[in-house]
């Protein structure tokens, strides 16, 4: 399995290196779909230039990276291309290893269930075979590395690639069962962009499942584990935040990074829902809608955790998708991370309802983004509504994609309990509906 | 040099006239203010000297002024007021300088100067006002102002056609104030002050807020006395969009002791002043020394008004100007309250009278170093009855004889433009020309860019003659969204005979729909950088930029709110659906007839079908 992965990495790095050398790199790094005010490489360079001028990079409103990023690139600015390629490679390898491990567990669990005769008899065609699962990790790595969105993001040197690497490492360490490293990577991811905070729920569920701790609010062991994890998470977060403070000697970065993420002052167009909404918002409703929109990311965590408490890895996927749809400055790099998980759920394909439509919409939107941007910004023959319409459609497609996968997952679980070919009372073939 | 030799006879003539003149008025002081600071000729002591000596003295003063660099104005103010004769505590002088321009246009510059020996800052309240306008005096004492400079300008000064102006001013409104160091809340005081000035001058100065105010660290040093240069007490703001019109002129005229009733101010008729290519009115308040020792300070109020009349629109193409043609008035008297009231005509370019002819001719000549350049002026003293002649009215007439003659190219010149296309990014180019053949000039560039053009300082390049020209001093303050603008100050050495290009890239922000101006597709005015050149202190403003920003559709906030909320609701709905419901087998629902029958059977108490 190592050889195809190596080949894949070589291909991915070659494609990126070739694009870095081409004239497209400058064009791509200006695209609003690929870079957001939070992740643009131009702004990282600006922050470094401000630091050289003796001005705090957080005194202005151009630089919004965390202090660790600025210090990372203080040393690596000349090797930025290699750093971003390396980040992609790390993400892909981490996802590859994580999915390999996860598949083993899935298979083991399935074996136990089969031995215990937990599945209805007609569900044999839902049982997963090692043969079809064999190539899934490689497909995941390929979906990440060769996804045009990832390639664009890497060529634009969007720091989103680094955030993805941190999240991928968090997923890897979680699936490997390393509580401490998982907490550290989760705190790093939170430190980078707040939203991954919601991933602590799947991590906790996963560890409890693995350590056979019952998810029961009346059990002391449940609370004890949560306390342990919270302690490690908050401790490392505290260390990172303190370190950032000592690197710059001021707390300026807190409002400039997290205040910027939460209060959305920069309305530069992107693929998300925030920019046009808040450009057109009535001023006295602004705060209210800001809260409503930001809550969306965190809002689904608890119900999803309850519904999916037996399936924390699917919960991670759902959470990543929700973050990518509802975050304030999304880029295509965020999409690429959760889309790389799609091969893991390839066994759900028979239950997907509108995957063809959704993929067509996503493809069409991706093609229309640059076209309508050009018409609005350069040609002047369209206006902002055109671009906005496409972002709306793109987000609807993402929502449909995610809810479709969620539906398919739930339905498969239902079939695994009640049998695949359900019958009505009168013996005719039944159709399943949500009630 | 040749020109100098030829004007020898004129200088001698002038000496005779001067002695006469001094008998008539020994109170004469060299009080031409900031414009012609080093005007040494009017000094009474110089009357007995030879012409050569006077010239030498002027040279000496000029070199001193160069050494003193940008403090020149202060030293000049010190030189101005010899305390030989006891005088009233306040003093008012008025003057008009007319400079015929090579293009055939004519430049008229009024200056009204009030000096008052008082102290607004001490505890005792100043309540008795004579010449000094009370409204401004109260502003000074209430807001603890140390210096105040405000200008309103309509039109852009074309340096390449007209040369350097006496008082440079940017298009729109400009306000800069030094506060006393006793002020604790400078920003609050500044806000109040702008609102008060907005009322005094009927201008939109109330639009000055933190987003267009900067604190320059090196430019805009105080022009009056006092060594406090802590820039925390300096505020500078411009409103490039401000439109100057009659309603700004009327309150400005009301500040004059004689109003527009007598003296030079009768010429200030708005219907003519605003029918011009360039119009600029300003008020400058600063503390100056009262005497040589500078033991006590006085407050100086200078009100200036500069106007350029266009040859083609105002003079119907005829190269002939008169006071009546320019202002539709002639002069009949000086302001009775003025201690000095003069008209100067710049005749430097007309040494032998072959360029233009001035009538009535005057025997009085004066020389002064203006902006590093020695100029010769014909002087008309309005306090002398003889000036008005037999008709009791003075109507100066300037008639061109030839349209030839080249203007010396101004030494320093700057221009600016936005490069790039589209509404996403752009690049600001500032070009600075140094036309001096062998001298290089240090230039301080001040650039204040609004926050919605996000500057990328790492893209800043300064090139002269194709080479990188590294600024020796850079002060950069990045912007904060909706709070403060970018401020860039640089000290650049301009090599001789070169063009220096400063470029910086920016990104255009999408604003909230309420933040756009009523005519958003007209574009946004971006202030102009100004350059200060220090050896004899010239301030050059470039033209303002007009930058287009991407706009949202202003007509559909409701639609956007509804549509985006719909998408969020689709997300919420589909997830809520899956989270709360469970899969169930669909039982076929009974037909309508059967359902109705069942309801009836239920009412009857019979078991359903």
Number of strands of chain B: 27
Average predicted confidence as pLDDT of chain A: 93
Give the count of helical stretches of chain B: 13
Low-confidence stretches of chain A: none
What is the gyration radius of chain A calculated from CA atoms?
23 Å
* Strand percent estimate of chain B: 25-35%
Question: What is the mean pLDDT of chain B?
Answer: 79
Strands in their spatial order, largest beta sheet of chain B: 5-6-4-3-7-8-2-1-10-13-12
Helical content of chain B (DSSP H or I, runs of 4+): 10-25%
The percent range for helix content of chain A is 55-70%
The ordered string of helix (H) and strand (E) elements of chain A is: HHHHHHHHHHHHHHHHHHHHE
> For the terminal residues of chain A, how far apart are their CA atoms?
44 Å
Query: What fraction of the residues of chain A are assigned to beta strands by DSSP?
Result: under 5%
Termini separation of chain B comes to 125 Å
Give the largest chain-chain interface (CB within 8 Å): A-B, 65 and 55 residues
What is the 3D shape of chain B? elongated
Give the tally of structural domains of chain A.
Answer: 1
From the helix content, strand content and strand pairing of chain A, which structural class follows? mainly alpha
Shape of chain A: globular
**Biggest beta-sheet profile of chain B:** 11 strands, mixed
Organism (chain A): Collichthys lucidus
GO cellular component, one term (chain A): GPI-anchor transamidase complex
Protein name (chain A): Phosphatidylinositol glycan anchor biosynthesis class U protein
Keywords (chain A): Endoplasmic reticulum, GPI-anchor biosynthesis, Membrane, Signal, Transmembrane, Transmembrane helix
């Amino acid at each position: 399995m190592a050889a195809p992965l190596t080949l894949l990495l070589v291909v991915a790095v070659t494609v990126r290196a070739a694009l870095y050398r081409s004239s497209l790199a400058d064009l791509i790094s200006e695209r609003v779909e690929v870079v957001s005010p939070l992740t643009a490489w131009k702004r990282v360079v600006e922050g470094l230039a401000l630091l050289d001028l003796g001005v705090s990079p957080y005194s202005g409103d151009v630089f919004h990276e965390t202090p660790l990023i600025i210090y990372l690139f203080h040393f690596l600015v000349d090797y930025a291309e290699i750093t971003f390629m390396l980040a992609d490679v790390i993400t892909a390898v981490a996802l590859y290893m994580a999915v390999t491990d996860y598949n083993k567990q899935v298979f083991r669990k399935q074996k136990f269930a089969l031995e215990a005769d937990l599945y209805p008899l007609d569900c044999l065609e839902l049982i997963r075979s090692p043969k079809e699962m064999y190539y899934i990790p490689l497909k995941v790595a390929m979906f990440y590395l060769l996804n045009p969105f990832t390639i664009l993001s890497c060529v634009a040197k969007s720091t989103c690639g680094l955030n993805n690497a941190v999240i991928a490492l968090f997923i890897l360490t979680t699936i490997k069962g390393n509580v401490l490293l998982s907490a550290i990577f989760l705190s790093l991811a939170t430190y980078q962009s707040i939203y991954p905070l919601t991933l602590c729920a799947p991590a906790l569920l996963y560890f409890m499942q693995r350590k056979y701790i019952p998810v029961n609010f009346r059990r002391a062991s449940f609370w004890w584990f949560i306390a342990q994890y919270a302690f490690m998470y908050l401790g490392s977060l505290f260390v990172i935040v303190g370190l950032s403070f000592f690197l710059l000697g001021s707390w300026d970065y807190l409002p400039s990074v997290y205040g910027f993420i939460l209060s959305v002052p920069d309305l530069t167009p992107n693929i998300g829902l925030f920019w046009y909404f808040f450009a057109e918002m009535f001023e006295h409703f602004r705060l209210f809608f800001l809260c409503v929109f930001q809550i969306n990311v965190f809002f689904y965590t608890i119900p999803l955790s309850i519904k999916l408490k037996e399936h924390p890895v699917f919960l991670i996927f759902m959470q990543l998708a929700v973050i990518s749809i509802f975050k304030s400055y999304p880029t295509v790099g965020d999409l690429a991370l959760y889309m790389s998980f799609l091969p893991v759920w390839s066994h759900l394909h028979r239950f997907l309802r509108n995957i063809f439509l959704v993929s067509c919409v996503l493809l069409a939107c991706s093609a229309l983004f640059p076209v309508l941007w050009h018409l609005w910004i350069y040609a002047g023959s369209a206006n902002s509504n055109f671009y906005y319409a496409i972002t709306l459609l793109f987000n609807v497609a993402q929502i449909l994609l995610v809810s479709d996968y969620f539906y398919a997952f739930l339905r498969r679980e239902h079939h695994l309990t009640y049998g695949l070919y359900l019958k009505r009372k009168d013996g005719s073939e039944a159709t399943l509906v949500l009630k | 040099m040749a020109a100098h030799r030829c004007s020898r006879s004129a200088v001698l003539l002038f000496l005779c006239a001067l002695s006469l003149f001094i008998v008539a008025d020994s109170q004469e002081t060299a009080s031409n203010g900031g414009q012609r600071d080093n005007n040494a000729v009017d000094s009474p002591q110089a009357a007995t000297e030879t012409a050569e000596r006077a010239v030498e003295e002027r040279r000496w003063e000029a070199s001193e002024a160069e050494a003193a660099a940008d403090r020149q104005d202060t030293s000049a103010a010190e030189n101005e007021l010899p305390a030989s004769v006891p005088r009233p505590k306040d003093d008012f002088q008025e003057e008009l300088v007319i400079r015929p321009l090579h293009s055939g246009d004519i430049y008229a510059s009024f200056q009204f100067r009030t000096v008052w020996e008082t102290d607004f800052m001490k505890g005792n309240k100043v309540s008795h006002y004579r010449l000094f306008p009370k409204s401004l005096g109260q502003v000074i004492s209430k807001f603890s102002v140390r210096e105040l400079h405000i200008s309103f300008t309509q039109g852009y000064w074309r340096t390449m056609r007209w040369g350097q102006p006496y008082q440079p001013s940017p298009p729109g409104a400009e306000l800069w104030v030094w506060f006393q160091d006793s002020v604790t809340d400078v920003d609050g005081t500044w806000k109040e002050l702008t609102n008060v000035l907005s009322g005094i001058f009927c201008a939109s100065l109330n639009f000055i807020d933190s987003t267009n105010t900067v604190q320059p660290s090196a430019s805009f040093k105080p022009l009056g006395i006092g060594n406090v240069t802590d820039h925390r007490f300096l505020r500078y703001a411009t409103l490039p969009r401000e439109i100057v019109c009659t309603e700004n002129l009327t309150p400005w005229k009301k500040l004059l002791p004689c109003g527009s009733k007598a003296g030079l101010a009768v010429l200030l008729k708005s219907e003519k002043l605003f029918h011009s290519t360039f119009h600029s009115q300003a008020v400058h308040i600063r503390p100056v020394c009262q005497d040589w020792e500078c033991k006590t300070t006085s407050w100086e109020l200078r009100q200036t008004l500069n106007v350029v009349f266009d040859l083609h629109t105002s003079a119907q193409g005829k190269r002939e100007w008169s006071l009546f043609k320019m202002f539709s008035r002639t002069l009949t008297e000086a302001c009775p309250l003025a201690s000095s009231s003069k008209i100067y005509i710049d005749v430097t370019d007309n040494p032998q009278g072959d360029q233009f002819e001035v009538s009535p001719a005057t025997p009085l000549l004066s020389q002064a170093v203006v902006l590093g350049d020695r100029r010769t002026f014909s002087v008309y003293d309005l306090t002398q009855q003889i000036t008005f002649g037999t008709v009791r009215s003075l109507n100066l007439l300037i008639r061109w004889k030839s349209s030839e003659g080249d203007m010396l190219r101004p030494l320093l010149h700057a221009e600016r433009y936005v490069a790039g296309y589209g509404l996403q990014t752009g690049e600001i180019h500032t070009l600075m020309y140094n036309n001096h053949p062998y001298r290089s000039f240090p230039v301080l560039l001040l650039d204040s860019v609004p926050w919605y053009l996000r500057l990328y300082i790492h893209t800043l390049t300064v090139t002269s003659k194709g080479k990188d020209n590294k600024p020796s001093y850079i002060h950069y303050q990045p912007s904060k969204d909706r709070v403060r603008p970018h401020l860039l100050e640089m000290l650049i050495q301009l090599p001789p005979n070169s063009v220096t290009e400063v470029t910086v890239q920016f990104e255009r922000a999408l604003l909230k729909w309420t933040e756009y101006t009523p005519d958003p597709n007209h574009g946004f005015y971006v202030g102009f950088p100004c350059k200060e050149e220090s050896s004899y202190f010239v301030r050059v403003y470039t033209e303002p930029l007009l930058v287009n920003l991407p706009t949202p559709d202003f007509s559909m906030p409701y639609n956007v709110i509804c549509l985006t909320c719909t998408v969020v609701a689709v997300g919420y709905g589909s997830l809520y659906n899956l989270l709360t419901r469970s899969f169930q087998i669909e039982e076929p629902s009974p037909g309508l007839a059967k359902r109705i029958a069942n309801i009836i059977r239920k009412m009857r108490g019979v078991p359903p079908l």
